[in-house]
Design brief:
Spore Coat Polysaccharide Biosynthesis Protein SpsA, Chain A, two-stranded antiparallel sheet, 2 domains, single chain, binds uridine 5'-triphosphate
Length: 299
């Protein structure tokens, strides 16, 4: 991914959710620290933002999330050991993580994604900012966030990422009603959280990447709890779209819902097959496994 200008300097990473879809693994450990191959989910998201020129990383944490702070902190004992053993590559990788300028804010109770974003208000101040949900893993070769920043630069309006979902899946997501202004770019009229299949205005669902402007905070402060008793970002965006342009950019590349067990397994397999060191051995293993299990590859 190429680096881009400085229209967006800050990113917020809501990471205070309870991760119930991944219990029992997430009982005492943060979902955001589940590793895909050798990196935790949150590191993929932080690196994705870094690739877009983002400089400040605001992580919303909660109970049982201390491991996230430790991951982006110095680890003197480990670094000394790697130094003494001459493991320069590993040392470089570990030390690089200490270089991110991170701020941590505790969300005192998991009151919803909208509430988590509201917690970032004192740090975002009057600037536009990106929001990345780290359990939505975007393939590192894709340029979604860069493309969204380009839309923001052209329109000065909030931008959400969209994906087309199967008709039977609309009830799992926030769905938009919008008009396509240019290929893949929608002006959003309304958003509905988890509509019933017959009532969905489209099949375009919001996925975990957003460029937001500070106007969102006033709306989040005043919004009543929505579905599940949570402060829903979708509800605030719906109100915002009634007042000013809000855009949705359709993403056609690879995304994995790594907060879900099956999505996590798919992401692990695909990223392992792309890993320079592991891919050959892992591909051989998979081919052999499929053969011995009598599983046919389908085209
Ligand atoms: P999810 O619903 O995907 O995450 O929230 P969750 O609540 O952790 O997981 P499940 O559904 O119970 O398995 C989307 C994002 O919003 C964050 C989550 O950490 C995740 O990144 N979030 C959610 C918060 O930070 N605070 C909340 O109160 C709720």
């Amino acid at each position: 991914m190429k680096k881009q200008g400085k229209a967006i300097r800050k990113a917020v990473f809501p990471a205070a959710g309870l991760g119930t879809r991944f219990l029992p693994a997430t009982k005492a450990s943060p979902k955001e620290m589940l590793p895909l191959v050798d990196k935790p989910l949150i590191q993929y998201a932080v690196e994705e933002a870094e690739c877009c020129g983002i400089e400040e990383f605001i992580i919303i944490t909660g109970k049982q999330k201390r491991a996230i702070e430790d991951h982006f902190d110095a680890a003197h004992e480990l670094e000394d050991l790697l130094q003494r053993k001459g493991k320069k590559d590993l040392l470089g990788e570990v030390q690089r993580l200490n270089g991110f300028t991170c701020a941590y804010i505790r969300q005192r109770a998991p009151l919803g994604l909208g509430h988590a974003i509201l917690c970032a208000k004192p740090f975002a101040k009057s600037e536009p900012f990106a929001v990345l949900l780290s359990d939505d893993v975007i393939d590192p070769d894709e340029s979604l966030l860069n493309d969204m920043i380009a839309v923001y630069e052209a329109t000065q309006a909030p931008v959400v990422a969209l994906e087309t979902v199967a008709p039977e899946d609309v009830e799992k997501y926030g769905i938009i009603d919008g008009a396509e202004e240019s290929r893949g770019l929608y002006r959003i009229n309304a958003l509905v959280e988890k509509p019933k299949p017959g009532e969905a205005p489209s099949r375009l669902s919001v996925i975990g990447r957003y460029i937001l402007t500070p106007e969102i905070f006033d709306l989040l402060e005043n919004i009543a709890p929505g579905k599940g008793g949570e402060i829903q970002l979708t509800d605030a965006l719906n109100q915002l779209a009634k007042k000013r342009p809000v855009y949705g950019l359709v993403f056609e590349g690879k995304r994995y819902d790594a907060g879900d067990k099956l999505g996590f397994l798919k992401a692990t397999v695909e990223l392992a097959l792309k890993d320079k060191v592991l891919s050959k051995g892992f591909r051989d293993f998979l081919e052999n496994f499929m053969r011995t299990q009598g599983i046919q590859a389908r085209n």
